[in-house]
Design a protein that fits this description.
Blueprint (H helix, E strand, L loop, with lengths): L3 E9 L2 E8 L7 E10 L2 H8 L8 E2 L3 E9 L12 E4 L9 H4 L13 E3 L2 E3 L6 E5 L4 E2 L6 H4 L2 H13 L7 E5 L3 H12 L3 E5 L3 H9 L4 E3 L6 H8 L5 E6 L4 H10 E9 L13 H7 L2 E4 L5 H12 L9 E6 L3 H9 L5 E5 L1
Parallel strand pairs: 4-8, 11-12, 11-14, 12-13, 14-15, 15-16, 17-18
Antiparallel strand pairs: 1-2, 3-5, 3-9, 3-18, 5-6, 6-10, 7-8
Bound molecules: zinc ion (2 copies).
Length: 346
């Protein structure tokens, strides 16, 4: 008899059905994962609200954690049945020029979505999923699944932190203190940087301080440039991470970055507006502008290691946990203005 699993399926904007689907069989090089938690990222919210047109019916979710249930044939892996793992690595071919350079998130052959019966997708919001073994990353087995589900977003953050090369004792500003902003704060702190958070919302500023930010500023009422100078011995910041995509954040970042500093466009902007930057500002200051849109395998490995080793705790970034059966309510909640991640457990 074919084993069945529950899956939350988005059939149309704002419509979610809990369906019974057959548990898939892992093929060569693949593992079957009994998934236990999926965190709802902006991608799932945009598919749910119809902002992003993805195929329907679809089962989505890419910030996932679970347990290895079965290892497929011809699998060259160190993973064993019972190992806890985090999922969310990009699909990649391993052959193209970007894969060869370790930039799997830029792979030119990303592959297609999986399909079970008429449902397509990544199947993060389901009890089981199959994944290539090299895209599953071992995590500590004594951590709650909701916490290890945040391995993927932390991996994106680590890629950005590596790109701007934060060093011991540097001062970094993080603009925006939502889930991704706070993951940036935690990662920057673990590099030995001093972290200042720029955030409009007072409750979020308080939370940022409680979670380890060294100082906060309110860009709505304070002059950001003089505030940073005041907090940083007269100098501006060595790096600025934009964790909320809008033109005010972009403008503030340019005002807050010091000579030879780095600006990271971490968040994507919707809508996006052209940057208003004088090329002579770049010429004169040597400021570097860069961005990040995802994570590679190394970032996933590093994120799993940092969470599993207790260096970075994602515990406080989980706002609420819903059972899989309440996926619709969870997606509605995630799409409203929450501070941190809404997680489904299954
Ligand atoms: Zn994500
Ligand atoms: Zn490739």
């Amino acid at each position: 008899m074919i084993k069945k699993m529950k899956a939350a399926v988005i059939t149309a904007p704002f419509q979610v059905e809990i369906r019974e689907l057959p548990v898939p069989e892992p093929g060569p090089g693949e593992v079957l994962v009994r998934q236990h938690a999926v965190a709802l990222c902006t991608l799932e919210q945009r598919i749910f609200t119809g902002i992003k047109k993805f195929p329907a019916p679809g089962c989505w979710g890419h910030e996932v954690s679970g347990v290895i249930e079965k290892i497929g044939p011809d699998c060259q892996t160190d993973l064993q049945v019972g190992d806890h793992v985090a999922l969310g690595a990009p699909t990649f071919c391993g052959e193209c020029v970007y894969c060869s350079r370790g930039l799997e998130e830029h792979c030119v052959r990303k592959g297609s979505f999986r399909k079970i019966e008429d449902v397509v997708g990544l199947f993060g919001m389901a009890e089981y999923a199959i994944v290539e073994s090299k895209r599953a990353f071992k995590t500590a087995n004594d951590l709650p699944f909701a916490q290890t589900a945040l391995t993927e977003p932390l991996a994106c953050v680590l890629q950005g932190i590596k790109k701007i090369g934060l060093k011991l004792g540097e001062t970094v500003v993080v603009i925006g203190a939502g889930t991704m902003g706070m993951l940036n704060v935690l990662a920057a702190k673990s590099c030995g940087a001093r972290v200042i958070v720029s955030e409009l919302d007072e409750a979020r500023r308080k939370k940022a301080l409680a979670m380890g930010a060294d100082a906060v500023i309110d860009p709505g009422s304070q002059d950001v440039e003089s505030s940073i100078r005041e907090l940083n011995g007269g100098r501006k910041a060595d790096a600025v991470i934009i964790a909320i995509g809008n033109k005010h954040a972009n403008a503030d970042a340019i005002k807050m970055v010091d000579i030879c500093g780095r600006v990271l466009y971490f968040a994507s902007a919707h809508p996006s507006e052209p940057l208003d930057v004088d090329p002579n500002f770049i010429h004169d200051t040597g400021v570097v502008l860069t961005g990040v849109k995802g994570k590679n395998l190394r970032d996933m490995w590093d994120a799993a290691a940092l969470i599993s080793g207790g260096v970075i705790s994602t515990a406080e970034l989980i706002e609420e946990i819903y059972p899989l059966e309440k996926a619709k309510e969870a997606l509605e909640k995630a799409s409203s203005s929450t501070n941190f991640r809404i997680v489904l457990s299954m």
